[in-house]
Amino acid sequence: MTHILTRRGFLSSAAALPWIAPVGHALAQTQTPPAPKTPPAPAEPAKPSTPPSPDVPYGVSPLGISDSLRDGSLYVPKSYRDTTPMPVVVMLHGYSGWGDEMKSTFQLAEEFGVVIVAPDSRDVTWGRSAPGFDEDVRFIGAAFRKAAQNLNLDPDRVALGGRSDGAGYALSMGLAYGDTFNHIISIAGGLMAPVRRKGMPKIFIAHGTTDQQMPIERTGRLFQQQLKDDGYDVTYREYEGGHATPVDVVREAFAWLTGKPFKPAP
Hints:
By secondary structure, the protein is an alpha/beta fold. It has six helices and eight strands, in the order αβββαβαβαββαβα. Strand 3 (about 85-90), helix 2 (about 105-110) and strand 4 form a beta-alpha-beta unit.
């Protein structure tokens, strides 16, 4: 059976105590005096931080993998260095959207040190035909491969995420391709219809308690319980409000992905 994602809506990281031997006067007369201490070696000058790589497209740039108007964006934070693997999230937009709409997450990419791949859906939304084997999943694969070939990505923190229609597709495809994407982020998603299940990805689900487009009782609450029953590691967050997503919810998802402490925005 073909599942079609057509829901509207997209919002909006000792000093060691010196060892002191209590030496009394009598002991001092009968013990060999200790050898003088060796003076400490001079401190080495601080090494300069690794410089940026000249061939890395820092900031936002086009994916450059589609001949059509629908392509997508790649965001590389200024903290990226070729010598250090960095977490990555493929972030999917909502209904009738563009990858460029994920620019709302670029500040979080800088804050937490995450590469963002933001492709455009092939049509008005994701998965309009043969989910799992459609043009969308092939394009997502090509976008991810380009990032992996050109950047040093952390293989232990590879996420597929999204909001609204993108969240439903991310949850479905993340479960189907859990041997590639070991983390899934679903925010205000309305569908979970994997064509198969591979691997055991960790999952972050967040949903608004008064979401009228994708009611929580039939989506977030239901999905998280089913996934927990199936043995998945699920982090679940409910937030007050409707289909729009508070910035702190997305911030918590990035903290979860990177393993860094979560602090609400001031």
